[in-house]
Task: inverse folding
């Protein structure tokens, strides 16, 4: 029997940053900051990097990453059809600079850009996790590794009987891999 299950490494939902679907981007950022401050440093050295969004019945319906928050600072990114698939394409620094100028992306100062984005609804920037981003709490870590690698995910939503009960973060799984490697050194 294989040792090591997803539930052994997951961050329980109660410890994760969550906001209502009625929240603003500012509310989400504050929730992330609070979750990061309350994290048990003796249990993990890694801060949370995402916020989960729940509906009126407290069911998780979406996820917001730090990159989603940065993307929300400039609405034109979404108008350009920017997608998660595009993130794997390499662009030269010159091309990226020309896009910034040609499309007038982020024309305001850093401060003005951040202030403008505060009241954006989280439902406008969240994404709905795909089927491949869910993993049962009793799944082996070996299978979870496969899921991370194949999906290029930063985290997986952990389920029990169809309900989300936690988050398995890539950083925590990597730390477990490192610890096992070090025991054989």
Result:
């Amino acid at each position: 029997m294989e040792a090591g299950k997803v539930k052994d490494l997951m961050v329980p939902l109660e410890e994760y940053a969550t906001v209502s679907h009625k929240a603003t981007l500012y509310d989400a950022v504050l929730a992330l900051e609070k979750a990061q401050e309350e994290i048990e440093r003796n249990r993990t050295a890694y801060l949370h990097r995402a916020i989960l969004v729940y509906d009126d019945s407290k069911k998780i319906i979406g996820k917001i990453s730090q990159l989603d928050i940065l993307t929300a600072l400039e609405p034109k990114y979404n108008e350009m059809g920017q997608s998660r698939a595009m993130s794997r394409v390499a662009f030269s620094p010159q091309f990226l600079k020309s896009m910034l100028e040609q499309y007038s992306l982020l024309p305001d100062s850093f401060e003005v850009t951040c202030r403008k984005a505060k009241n954006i609804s989280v439902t406008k920037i969240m994404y709905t996790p795909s089927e491949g981003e869910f993993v049962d709490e009793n799944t082996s870590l070996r299978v979870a590794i496969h899921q991370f690698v194949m999906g290029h995910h930063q985290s997986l939503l952990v389920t029990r009987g169809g309900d989300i009960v936690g988050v398995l973060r890539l950083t925590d799984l990597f730390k477990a891999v490192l610890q096992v490697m070090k025991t054989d050194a």
Summary: The beta strands are 11-12, 18-20, 50-54, 60-65, 134-136, 155-160, 163-169.
